[in-house]
Amino acid sequence: xxxxxxxxxxxxxxxxxxxxxxxxxxxxxxxxxxxxxxxxxxxxxxxxxxxxxxxxxxxxxxxxxxxxxxxxxxxxxxxxxxxxxxxxxxxxxxxxxxxxxxxxxxxxxxxxxxxxxxxxxxxxxxxxxxxxxxxxxxxxxxxxxxxxxxxxxxxxxxxxxxxxxxxxxxxxxxxxxxxxxxxxxxxxxxxxxxxxxxxxxxxxxxxxxxxxxxxxxxxxxxxxxxxxxxxxxxxxxxxxxxxxxxxxxxxxxxxxxxxxxxxxxxxxxxxxxxxxxxxxxxxxxxxxxxxxxxxxxxx
Length: 299
Hints:
The protein folds into 2 domains: 2-182, Jelly Rolls (Sandwich); 203-297, Orthogonal Bundle (Arc Repressor Mutant, subunit A). The mean pLDDT is 90. Strand 4 and strand 5 (56-61) form a beta hairpin. Helix content is 47%, strand content 23%. With 299 residues, it is of the alpha+beta class.
């Protein structure tokens, strides 16, 4: 099912529960309560949508998305002088459960049932994510590029699209789920709040890696002390903030080496390395080969 909603076509017609569907929206003004019918993905292609979910406020800005499941309660507010472009995708819980079933626990030949429960329970981690940094985001950006050209065309989304999205959601959440279990606090809601803060710090690193933000700066962005952030970040993700920064830089450089003809020295500067020698040394430490060798083998 595919629907288009605008300021002039707002309808109160009920949409099916626990099903898979895609809604494209162009609003300037909207304020209403929301029924989260299935596992829901709220992506914003242009502008900002403001959500309240289970008492927490989320500003979903351009190029970002919010994830919630059917246990959530809340509403949405859009107040803009320009069209705010959004895509809401519902993924059937049954389909998501099937996608979870395709991932086996590392220590057994069986699916991780606790991960399935996580997606379908009130304990799911509602949160916003930047589309550029996730497998789910890649699919959302592609869908947005397809729909925005002519949203009123009779677009169709087959089962392959929904299963690919469900598989991406699961892949993105496996490390997040493990990280959430690793954060040790007495109350689960406190653990969820801390995990949101840590994810905010992780995304801050991924957005600003070229400027080499220090731990104190990142911790302030998360509203945490430097020590508390460093300890919990390593606990949740199994890596220090500095190592994640370096991995993000190297991932950026690998992509640039593979997809462009830009000199390695220029790529090094783009990624925030002091010079090409520091870049080459770090690149070889992470990949086992030099930037020149990497470019040669990926062409």
